[in-house]
Amino acid sequence: MAAALPRLCALALPFLAVAACLDVPSHGNRMHLPRKPSQELACSGELEKSKCTPKLTNKCGHCKNKLDFGKEFVCCSDCSDPTILIKHSKMGYCKSGAELSMQLKPHKIYHWVAGPWMKCSSPCDGGVRYRDVACYGNLSDATIKHYPVDDASCSADEMPARQEACNEQSCGVDMAEQTNSRKNGMSGWLVALILLLGLGAIGGIVFTSYTYYLRRTSGRSGFVYVMMEAYS
């Protein structure tokens, strides 16, 4: 037993040296933990939590130092850096002492916009005409104009037609109708012209016959009187 004691001391000596080098605090000493700032204590429930709850505003849009939470922005009222401690409730504080604010993002609306129809590709026998159809988005904020987006953002079921058939009437029937209408128009003018010429000729013959009759049945003075009456 006495012979084994030096060996045990030799084995335990390295462990004793390591323990002596370690700075292990005694049970009587207190460990000093870093204290939380007063703002963090407020959000932890030790002070008023209302100071850490963001207030609704519409001024976060122009701040560069804002946090994006998907449907809303969180910022400080003076546009300084906000600090968020509880993410799901967005509770936090502003290091500058400003008020923590939150702004809801404008709601996006997507809709189809169709342009005017272009000229038909054929005057008859069926043609095709086209128009431009694109998907546009706009925000619930009326001050922002709509802007083009990818067509996948709009509903495919509500998409207006980009092309349609046009001028499906037959070219043969159409040409025949046009020819007949032209012929009918020309024949009408010819008939009217012939009637006018005929009436003029009949009137001239009647006048000449009447004048000749008066000349034969009247004297010289009577003939002159009749001629003067005719030309007056």
From TrEMBL:
SUPFAM superfamilies: TSP-1 type 1 repeat. InterPro entries: TSP1_rpt, TSP1_rpt_sf. The chain crosses the membrane at residues 189-213. Gene3D superfamilies: Thrombospondin type-1 (TSP1) repeat (2.20.100.10). Residues 1-19 form the signal peptide. It holds the Pfam family TSP1_ADAMTS. It comes from the Eukaryota. The keyword Membrane applies. Keywords: Membrane, Signal, Transmembrane, Transmembrane helix. This is Uncharacterized protein.
